[in-house]
Amino acid sequence: MPAALITGGTTGIGRANAALLHARGHRGAVTGQSAEPLARARRELSDDMIVVRSDVRVPPKPRLSWQGCPNVSGLSTCCSATTPGFLPRTGRAGVAEKSFDEHVDVNFKGRHTLQKARPQTNDGGPIILTVDSASRRGSPGATVGAGLRGAVLAMLPSLALELAPRRIRVNTVSNGATETPLFDKLGEPQNGRDAIRTKIPFERSGSSQEAAEAVAFPASDITGYATGQDFAVAGGYEPGA
Predict the structure, then answer these.
(1) pLDDT tens readout for residues 141-171
(2) Does some domain include residue 228?
(3) Among candidates 150, 148, 155, which has minimal Cα distance to 103?
């Protein structure tokens, strides 16, 4: 049974990634930080998916608490979800320096978790980083989030070339507006959600399941010759005017 590591996998898109990969035959480890989503994931996910508390903002030893789990020996797939709920809807000028540093720690430096997973990743396995379409489309209040996700996208071509000798494929998935518990957590009113939908050519938000399917695609052997690519799943929003 192939092994997968899904960071940020206890809620939203990351949780959907874990459930879908398990349904398609993976065992593995899922990481998260908040107590309630961790407990819920432990109750609802299969025993084949170990749920581990891991905070990417802390020093390396706790960050790597998933290492040593039997479920992640010989990794075949690594997925890293972003943490959009940790990003304020405000421009760069409206973010205090301490808050900005925390956002960088979570949404950019936190990807270093996958750097530590590289030695455990099988040759020929995929690494998928999830970002979102905000890095390519201007949006008031999205300066910090767009910058951090853009930084991940800027790393993509070089990382793909670095790991090519091991035939490890590195790709990203850029999600558009997706219906997850995050909308409720942020207190996004219904008229705000409706306003977002009016900007999407498909005139609707995506689902967590659709986002997970988009991750499962580059995680599969079907894309065995694709690396260094960004797969946009945004209902036509990203290429729009």
Answers:
(1) 677 777 888 888 999 999 999 999 999 999 9
(2) yes
(3) 148
